[in-house]
Amino acid sequence: MVAMADFARRLRRLRGPLTQHELAARARMHRSHLAKIELGQREPTVSTIVKLARALRVKPGQFFEDEPGPGRSRKSRRKP
């Protein structure tokens, strides 16, 4: 299960150069609600996740994927 802090971090990363105001307008939600999600203070509903994904032009699952750390790539590991 993804913690709210992890979801919030991924949302901020996917938002990139967009402001909260711009993303909120694209997702048709209030900026203060988006801000609380990004701060990990509110847990988004499934419908909110879908709205955010559409506004960012990503798949909803991308909010839940592990981010590659230093020395890691997004490719799957090879089995020995």
Question: What's the CATH C level?
Answer: Mainly Alpha
Question: How many domains make up the 3D coordinates?
Answer: 1
Helix percentage range: 40-55%
Total helices: the number is 4
Tell me the total number of β-strands: 0
SSE ordering: HHHH
How much strand content do the residues show? under 5%
Specify Rg, calculated over alpha carbons: 14 Å
Give the overall pLDDT as a whole number.
Answer: 86
Instruction: Indicate the structural class.
Output: mainly alpha
Low-confidence stretches: none
> Quick one: biggest sheet?
none
Explained architecture:
- The chain has helices spanning 4-15, 20-27, 31-38, 46-56.
- The model has no long low-confidence stretch (mean pLDDT 86).
- The relative contact order is 0.18.
- The protein is built from 4 helices and no strands.
- The chain has a single domain (4-63), classed as 434 Repressor (Amino-terminal Domain).
- The chain has 80 residues and is an all-alpha fold.
